[in-house]
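Q: Structure tokens for this one, please.
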Amino acid sequence: MLININLLSLTGTKNPGMKYFFFLLLIWTVIPCYGQNTDSLKKVVFSNSPAQSRLIAATRVAIYPVEQNPAQIIVIAKEGLTLAHKLKRNKAITLLSQTLGKSYDQTNQYDSAAYYYNIAAGILIKTNEQYILTDDYRRLAQGYFKLKNYDKAIAFNNIAILYAPQTGERASLTKALNQAGTFYEAQNNYQQALSYFRQAFDIKDSLNLARQTSENTSETYSHQFMGDVMGSIKQSQSEEEILKTIDIKKSLNDTLALSINYFNLGVLYKNKRLYTQSLDALKNSLQFATQINYADMQRSATNEIADLYEQMGDYKQSLIYLKKHASIKTSGSNTIDELQAKYEIKQREDQVLQQQFEITKRNYWMAGICIFILMMLFGGFFYDKQNKLKQRNAAMQAIIAAEESERRRIAQDLHDSVSQIISAAKINLAVIGGELPFVNEGQKIRFEKVINLVDYGFKEVRTISHNMMPWALHKTGLAQVINQFIENIKNDNITINFFSRGFDSPFDDTVEIILYRVLQESVNNVMKHANANRVDISLIRSEESISLTIEDNGRGFDTTNPDLFKGMGLNNLRSRINFLKGKVEFDSQLNKGTLVSIYIPLANKPL
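A: Here is the predicted structure, written as tokens:
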């Protein structure tokens, strides 16, 4: 029963500076109630006192035995429960709900008892303390069993079985398991009853064996002796050898040896699935063991017979022998019930330790608050870092957009203005050349050179314009634009090989423009500085990523030299790739060429 009231829990006060005030308030309120009967408590609960004082008085009703005046306790506890809900005191709600459940159970109003037990369980589950209600649910199941409402009896008993292991007391679990077996036996469901009884008896057997081992009793040696004898017989002796031994022991009237050998004969037949012969042998073993009061052999034989009947599908007989197995007392000085009593005493000692834990709970609260503050600070730092990253990406995107806009403007001017002027100049020169008489052939050749220079300038302007703004990017795709770029810059001094996959049609504009500028910058660097005669370019797009590699056989450079990365070219290249959340790596050695590898994930890019 919950009778300890935590001051801080009931008042909701978490300020250590106020605890002494509320402690005095508790003393002032509770002392008059101490020793009062339920009538006095009822007057306090239904008075005009502060709600907190009335709630504290109401919780005192939990210490009174419900069987003395359940009706009065119900009235007080209901009013207290209303106050607890209003003040949001979960521990008081739990205590009063459990008290109401006990009271209604006492008055045989089992549905109401179940209702309030479930309220208490709902709160206790959150703190993993639902085991407190184990015995309450078990008694409630007994009530429904008396009414022959077996479904509800089994349902609430299963709740008790579920909660019982958490108490640490094996007695609660064995009682709940035995009760489940009784319920199923009343329904003639012997298979289920057998299952629950066996679980309960197995727990008792394990406790008994643990006691025997710890106390080093003669029973332990008896178990060990049986195990050695039985084990050696199972492994080495045949059916004929055991039957021969039995005949010899019968002539000598050796009852102990007959009990052991009949037992092993029964186990041998059981392993061979000769159930009828096994049953006869085991019953003979039980008969001889009973004659000499050999408790260990009696328990072993009844357990084997119960298991044998279960395998044969006769669950009723199996249940009968399993109960016989449980009823046989061992020869030790302590019974199972005494051992369980020791366990319960140990649990009460644990409850004292639990009170000490309550004293240190505040320290855990403070540690939790500190951890929460640290997590908030970490969250703020992470949010600030993400925000700065977004701002940096936005700034980078704005720079890229501004650069492309400026390139587009210059390219447009070159294409629409300068190239048109040069084209007009070429046409006029051609007309003039057709009208003027040349003095000699040399003058005509020089005039034709002038026209060729103008034509070359026109082509250069067109090339520069297309390199600054690849017009075909939005129409034919990145691969076609790169091919055009390579066609414009190729010469007899260098061979450029280009392989592409996945870019034959237009893709994401931003990604294509950045890739084109990175490739353009890298190839121009090779043309200017690498002194290479071969460049291999690979551009591949898959569903997950884009990879771009540019490899030359030029003079290379020392990648460990930080000065090489201070220029605008490589930094600009890296910033563009970082904007796409990609990676760029340089692999180069002096006189061994250079490999530029670029990887860009496509998790959030359109396909």
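A few notes: Residues 337-469 form one domain. The two ends are 66 Å apart (CA to CA).
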